[in-house]
Structure formats: structure tokens, C-alpha cells
Amino acid sequence: MAISNFEQLYSLMSPTLDPTPVVAAGAADVTVLGALRDACDRGWVEPLLAGSESDIRRLADEHEISLTGMAIVDTAEPAAAAVARVRAGRARLLMKGQISTPELMRAILHEQFGLRTGRVICQVVLMEIARDDRRFLLADTGITPRPDLEQKVDILQSALSVARALGEATPRVALLAASEKVTARLPDTLEAAELQNRGEAGEFPGCLVQGPLSFDLAYAAMAGERKGLAGPVTGAADIMLFPDLTSANLTVKAIMYTSDCRFGGVLCGTTCPVIFMSRADDRPTRLRSLALALRLLSQDDRHRICGPKQAASGK
After folding, report:
1. What is the pTM of this model?
2. CB 42 within 8 A of CB 14
3. pLDDT tens-digit profile of 242-268?
């Protein structure tokens, strides 16, 4: 990954005279308020806080977080109110706060008033492992339970756009499965092999696609040497595409809670990037996710991340 760490990402985000308006759905949370305070002080954003005004002010007072420069949208329906601000052009980013994923997704997916684009909506996480000096993207880690082949193509396109926004000219994509051997007993290996074939045929220009690969083969060159498996992506994946939500969620949370890592996540496939992480995440993680979303928004290819469907199909 061309951007070597989150500090470098932060350094690229200089304050502007026009900070980006961001609306937080479920802002009555100390980590949300703290991260937005940090981003506001850096000159990155102009926050709108959707939620109970009394709860927001109480938490801010209790934790001595200044609300200067922030506006409060007092509402009992923070998801709908936040999405409405995006649709009206009053916010360019949406941030998930202390609100459940189903509640937020109902507002995002609303047929008439949501943020649909025709793309597959997926979560892309940027993971940084300090011990190994490794950075890579993981997708889809939060939305589609069991993507079919064409949905995986669309998720892959979103992850590629994120990688390029982070400066990776030729992203290396690992198509993950439980085994590197193609077998009908593991249908995910068949789909991974099909995607590799389509990549070799030129369907995904400007990247290298290999699969099926187990996680160890995608992550560690030593695993490839020991298993006798080579390839352009083995041990060097910039993107790891998961076969399903269960494997993605378990892998990501295992890394988050057992390794020396830093991470941030966003939703792609919506009309704007959505800062999207767990309600359990801390203040620095929310700030990292916000920085990632701002980077996507600033890039020329952002229409491929958040705009209408291009070549790929999806739901």
C-alpha cells in the first residue's frame, strides 16, 4: 500500500478554509464526539450531530468535550435525519455513531429517501499491522452476508478504488478461501478461480488477482515458500476479498483484538462515503475511519467508489 501508515494519511489532510460537512447518526457517544472534536480541531470537518440534544450536551459536559463549531440536529430518529442531511447536500459524509447497523442500513437503503446507487454496498477496512510493517484492505467486512459472484466483482471494484485512492497504482488482490486448492467441496474456491481467470482475461485492468488463497498465503511470503505456492499476490496482498461475511467478520475482529494493529473502515457503494465501524470502537479508530473517508472523497476517482454502477452489477 503506497500510504505507509495512518500518520502519513493524516499528514496529507491539511486544514482548508472549507472543512467538509459530516453528519453523525447517533452522536450521543463519547468516542464519536471525541473523534469529531479532534477532526474539527485539525480543520478537517464541520460536524452535524444527529441525536438527542440533551444526551449529546450531557456527555460533552461530563467528558469536557467542546461542541464549538458543531451543530446539533435534535431528533429521535438519528439515522433518517442524518441521511436526509446528506440527500439535501448539507453533509458530504455520513458517520455511524451509537446506532445499530440494521437501523442505519434501513435509512441508507430506503427506496425513496436513502443513499442507494445501484452498487453493492460493502465495508472496506484499512488494516495496519505494526509488527510486520504491513497494510492491506479487507472487504466486505460488514454488509453482504453471502455475496454471489457478480456481487464479489462489484465489491472488488470498490476495494480497488479505495486502494488507488491510497496511492497503490497496481493493487494485488487475494481472493480468500479456506484452501488454495480448487474443489467442488468448497464452492468459494470455484468462484475465486473464476475471478482469477476473469482477471487474467483483462476484466480488472490495472491490478493483479490471485485465488483461491488462504489467509496465510495472502499475508506471509514464508507460507508460500513452505507450501510451494508462488504467484504475484502470494505474501503481498494489498486487498483481501472474503468469500462471505462470517469469515470476514471473524477474521477482522480476531486481528483487531489480538494483534498490534490500527484500522479504520468505510462503506462504499453509497452516494457518499460512510464512516462505518463497530459501536465498540474507540476514539482513535473513529478518527482513522474519518480520515480514510475524507481521503476517498478527495480523489478524482471517487465516482467509482460512491457513484452509480459502472461495469459491475450488484444489488
Report:
1. 0.93
2. no
3. 999 999 999 999 999 999 999 999 999
Angle, helices 53-62 vs 30-41, to 10°: value is: 70
The alpha carbon dihedral of 14, 125, 202, 170 has a sign of positive
What's the pLDDT at 237? Answer: 98
Nine-digit cell string for 288: 482513522
Structure-block grid coordinates of residue 61: 459536559
Strand partners, 102: none
Q: How many angstroms separate the CA atoms of 238 and 147, rounded? A: 21
At 89, list the grid cell. Answer: 447536500
Give the pLDDT band (50/70/90) at residue 278.
confident
> For the segment 94-110, what is each residue's pLDDT rounded down to a tens digit?
999 999 999 999 999 99
**Mean pLDDT, rounded, for 78-98:** 97
Domains of the chain: residue spans and CATH: 1-116+270-303 (3.40.50.10950), 119-267 (3.40.718.10)
What is the C-alpha radius of gyration for the chain, rounded to an integer number of angstroms? 19
Nearby residues of 152 by Cβ (< 8 Å), 6 or more positions away: 191, 195, 241
Residue 45's beta-bridge partner residues?
Answer: 20
